[in-house]
Design goal:
Layout lengths: L2 H17 L19 E2 L9 E3 L1 H9 L3 H13 L4 E7 L3 E6 L1 H14 L13 E5 L11 H19 L3 E8 L4 H14 L12 H16 L27 H24 L6 E4 H6 L2 H11 L3 E4 L2 E4 L10 E4 L7 H14 L7 E7 L6 H10 L8 E6 L2 E5 L2 E2 L12 H18 L7 E4 H4 L7 H21 L15 H11 L1 H10 L4 H20 L10 H4 L2 H6 L6 H24 L9
Parallel strand pairs: 5-6, 5-11, 6-7, 11-12, 13-15
Antiparallel strand pairs: 1-2, 2-4, 3-4, 8-9, 9-10, 13-14
Length: 596
């Protein structure tokens, strides 16, 4: 019996007690939803397999002492199939012990469901637009963006496992001053000049500048001979703005797509595949910025002051109103944000029920205006718009911070990280920590093959389970004759309980937008499995001289083979663990190797 099944049983008992008039002043409308009846694993196994505080939750509403109400629950639970015993403890805890067959039923449940075990549809019918990374196309993706790539893609996978339709989206900031500074930096590099004060540095600038020159030459364009003075026209004959030039425009139009290609390639190599690559510039060229402003104006949220156009965001909880068109006629950056949110909610293909933004720590002050804009459009902040703020990443090696990248200057890029420790370790280490907390990445640890390395520890559990399968096949052990009720040792029980907790954990990880909980679960499951492996056998270990090898633990484990029914049951338990670990690793975008 799973924790979910016990929660449902407790919920039904609460309603039965009400209908029979045994629950004091408790009424059906005061009983919380089934999911609110938490079933927990006791820290002390002597207290049973599972525990519930349902009686303490309901006692006040029932006008009863928690222990008295708990006794009523216990009497009903004792009569349920699969429950061996029930005990009321402390102020009103209900401790439940399952019979061995009921506890072990999770094994067949896992094996029948395969990689779908734990997946559910409680978020079905909703389209979640998940925007993450969205680094400016002015350089390689740095370590902060790399963290969002790992967390964002893992979050998308977890949400999909809960039934949601997820649109992974990358927002290209290809409009505005940062692109101008990028182009100026390239022109300076092409002429061997100093980087502009507000420009971008790094060897990649020289690389891109050279590629632009080579590409232009191949097209018959001598880019370095184009005018560098302000003014001129772009490739369509439109006049360039102040501070632009024909040469800078040529570098811009050729270099920005090069950076797009590089970012897309880096994301693909990192196993992140976006559904939508959205270009900020399209919001202006398609007139969506003007339309969004017009919509807010019609709602009474736009006014003019000091020659500028303002969004009256204080009406919706912001600390001050925001300029969206400056007095010089140029759009403020926030204008594009307004249009972009409106686009997400109303686009023809996959309009978002929920728009989730994953932003860096430097955007924390942006939340107020974004939520105000959401409300101004008639939506619900926190529901239709959700903003997640990620914290900093520190990369360490030999106890010291790693800062320098040969290519990108004083930053660590996605390629630097994966070159150092690989994609698996990079994704796992960045996704396993709550994005609300800073994280230290220890390159030495994550490159090691030791149990201190969390990704290795989990992957090794999967590889070990595959090795058990190979040894079982060689010994002729199959599922035939398996009796899962014989999985009755303490070690068996710990593994069974860990497997039973996966569905609830997966649902919780989706609801809380917390993919790091998957990693923590996998580490706990791996630890439980490794302990089980050290004390229980599927296939007997053959050591002719264990004393000579000094492996006391292995010597203890040598033994006659377990009876066939138990060996077959343990093989099924081994394979259930293998299934769940592989599923969990896949949700984090990490490989599940069969050998290590």
């Amino acid at each position: 019996m799973s924790p979910e099944a016990l929660s449902e049983l407790i919920f039904n008992i609460a309603n039965t007690l009400v209908s029979e008039g045994k629950a004091g002043t408790l009424t059906a409308d005061l009983i919380p939803p089934q999911a609110k009846f938490a079933v927990m694993r006791p820290k002390d196994r002597a207290h049973g397999d599972w525990a519930s505080n349902a009686a303490m939750q309901l006692a006040k509403k029932a006008g009863m002492k928690p222990r008295d109400l708990a006794e009523l629950f216990a009497a009903e639970l004792t009569n349920a199939d699969g429950i061996k015993s029930v005990e009321v403890a402390g102020p009103g805890f209900i401790n439940i012990t399952l019979d061995s067959a009921s506890a072990a039923a999770v094994v067949d449940t896992v094996l029948e469901a395969g990689s779908d075990y734990g997946k559910n549809d409680h978020l079905s019918g909703k389209t979640l637009n998940l925007e993450f990374v969205s680094a400016n196309p002015t350089g390689p993706i740095h370590i902060g963006g790399t963290r969002w790539a790992a967390v964002g893609d893992s979050m998308a996978r977890v949400l999909e496992a809960n039934g949601a339709k997820v649109v992974r989206e990358y927002y290209f900031n290809d409009h505005g001053e940062q692109i101008n500074r990028f182009a100026k930096s390239l022109v300076a590099a092409a002429h061997g000049e100093e980087t502009p004060i507000d420009g971008y540095k790094g060897a990649y600038i020289d690389e891109i500048a050279k590629r632009v020159i080579d590409e232009a030459n191949a097209d018959g364009v001598d880019v370095l001979s184009l005018p560098r003075v302000d003014g001129g026209a772009d490739q369509d004959g439109n006049p360039l703005g102040e501070g632009d030039s024909e040469q800078r425009e040529e570098f811009r139009k050729r270099a920005v797509p090069m950076m797009f290609d590089e970012i897309q390639r880096s994301m693909k190599n990192f196993r992140v595949n976006f559904d939508v690559w959205f270009h900020e510039n399209s919001l202006y060229s398609d007139g969506e910025v003007d339309q969004a402003i017009a919509d807010l104006r019609a709602r009474g949220d736009i006014y003019e002051k000091d020659g500028a156009t303002w969004f009256e965001s204080t009406k919706h909880g912001d600390d001050k109103d925001r300029v969206i068109i400056k007095s010089d006629g140029n759009y403020a950056y926030f204008a594009a944000d307004i249009a972009y949110y409106r686009n997400k909610r109303h686009r023809e293909t996959n309009p978002a029920d929920v728009a989730i933004y994953m932003l860096g720590a430097d955007h924390h002050g942006y939340i107020g205006r974004m939520m105000a804009m959401c409300e101004a459009f008639g939506d619900k902040p926190g529901e239709n718009m959700q903003i997640l703020i990620g914290q900093l990443v520190n990369v360490m090696k030999d106890g010291k911070a790693v800062r320098m990248s040969k290519r990108a200057g004083n930053v660590v890029t996605i390629d630097d990280l994966t070159d150092a420790i690989g994609v698996d370790a990079s994704r796992y280490s960045l996704a396993r920590t709550d994005y609300n907390s800073p994280v230290d990445i220890d390159l030495n640890l994550l490159a090691s093959h030791s149990n201190e390395n969390p990704v290795y520890y989990v992957q090794y559990a999967h590889a070990r389970s595959c090795n058990v399968d190979r040894n079982a096949a060689a010994a002729g052990i199959t599922y035939e004759g398996a009796d899962v009720s014989l999985l009755d040792t303490t070690a068996d029980g710990e593994v069974l309980a860990a497997l039973a907790q996966w569905p609830a954990l997966l649902r919780e990880a989706g609801d809380l937008r917390a993919p790091h909980r998957v990693a923590h679960y996998l580490e706990d499951l791996a630890a439980t499995y490794h302990k089980w492996y050290n004390v229980e056998r599927v296939v007997p270990m053959e050591l002719t001289d264990p004393e000579a090898r000094g492996e006391q633990a292995d010597a203890i484990r040598i033994a006659k083979a377990p009876e066939p029914a138990r060996a077959a049951a343990r093989l099924k338990l081994n394979d259930a663990v293998k299934t769940v670990i592989a599923e969990g690793l896949d949700l984090l975008g990490v490989a599940a190797p069969d050998k290590m």
